[in-house]
Amino acid sequence: MTAGPADADGSPSTVEEHQSAILSAITPLAPVRLELAAAEGCVLAEDVTAAVALPSFDNSSMDGYAVRAADVAGAARQAPAMLPVAGEIAAGDVGAYRLVPGTVIRIMTGAQLPAGADAVVPVEWTDGGTAQVAVYRPAEPGNAVRYAGGDAAEGETLLSAGTRMRAMQIAAAASAGRKAVTVRPRPRVVVLSTGNELAEPGTPLVPGQIWDSNSYMIAACAREAGAVAYRHSVVPDDPAGVLPALEEQLSRADLLITTGGVSMGGEHDVVKAALRELGTVTFRKVAMQPGMPQGFGVIGKGGAGGAGAERGVPIFTLPGNPVSAYVSFQVFVRPAIAALQGASDRSLPAVQAVLTGPARSPAGRRSYLRGVLDGSKVTPLSGQQSHQVASLGRANALIVVPEQETQLPAGHPVDVLVLP
Ligand code: AMP
Ligand code: MG
């Protein structure tokens, strides 16, 4: 966060103000050279160009016969062109073949076109002959031929820097002959929940306790956003314990996320208390619901050892209610993870849809309501309070209700964030 008081709980910021304050504090990770197989999920820090024309040679797109179009020009079902079959070329056959005029060569999909041929007659247009073939239809020059460079020209940019390497992009890079690519790696994210009330799932609860869901959820969110995530065990509400727990993680994290302990005052808000001391983390209200109390900053800069020493580690302190933490992640942390990778796809995909039922929102705050998106319709779920995880488990989308709206009727168009 830029200059300003370490505690700006006063007047709320807009979502965009907080987002841009975050992004201006993020420096992309250093690029590394990775083998293609290891680059999945990383983001290109270079353009990938075609080393050669793709394909690099003229070849057949069908099983059939390589011909001179002129030799089959008059072919018809009643008056087939009868031509001797002079040979066969299979995919991978690297011999230098030449078509003698007045003959054909049997050719397979992906096999190189022999010199002198200018078209391929698909086997379906013939009697399939092996010594001699009857061709029933004429073929235009270029028929069923994939020309060299028809996919990409030599030197053409196939993938631009900022592109995330998913299966499709890995295919393009491999097809271009690339063994390795220069990418920004998946950021290492450490997630840490605070709260004396938190019990580990799988252990019995006593009244007053709840099971910790945030650390599992946010670690999963981080992975969905392209990070490698580590979940720290629950940290109790002990002001003396929070900072050491965070500092211990600095050398192994590119980003830290805490949940809980940042409410609007109260001695149990240990995350806020611990980090406010450092002076580099700002706590503010953001005009949204859920997710009003937000904290962000950079810690560990110039500290002892590890990655934290040179660059500092960005830290998000998310509110404790699970839905608040979830929405805050999608709106603020996801773009930061993308920025660490230099990725061009920073936000969740957004679509427009029509409400199937009414949506309510407090005045002056942007609401993110859990909903079910089905084609061009979106249904707000019941149970929209920030602790209600039942509706979170049923949602596939967040319905965005703008700040100035307090009530939207069924049939109203809304922006919808599509959840991973
Ligand atoms: P806090 O921000 O710590 O005041 O917590 C706000 C609410 O979120 C309280 O009801 C907490 O019990 C709940 N909460 C905090 N952390 C977690 C967590 N890790 N998992 C589930 N609920 C939590
Ligand atoms: Mg708490």
Q: Estimate the strand proportion.
A: 25-35%
Distance between the termini: 27 Å
Q: Which regions contain 5 or more consecutive residues with pLDDT less than 50?
A: 1-7, 304-308
Q: How do the strands line up in the largest sheet? A: 1-19-21-22-18-14-17
**Chain-averaged pLDDT:** 94
Described by strand count, sense and barrel closure, the largest sheet is: 7 strands, mixed
Our count of helices gives: 8
Number of strands: 29
* Overall geometry: elongated
Work out the radius of gyration. Answer: 30 Å
Plain-language structure description:
The two termini are 27 Å apart. 19% of the residues lie in helices and 30% in strands. The strands form eight sheets. It has a seven-stranded mixed beta sheet, sandwiched between helices. It has a five-stranded mixed beta sheet with strand order 9-6-8-7-10, with no helix packed on it. With 420 residues, the chain is α/β, with parallel strands linked by helices. Strand 25 and strand 26 form a beta hairpin. Residues 193, 195, 197-198, 210, 212-215, 259-263, 319-322, 387 line the site of adenosine monophosphate (AMP).
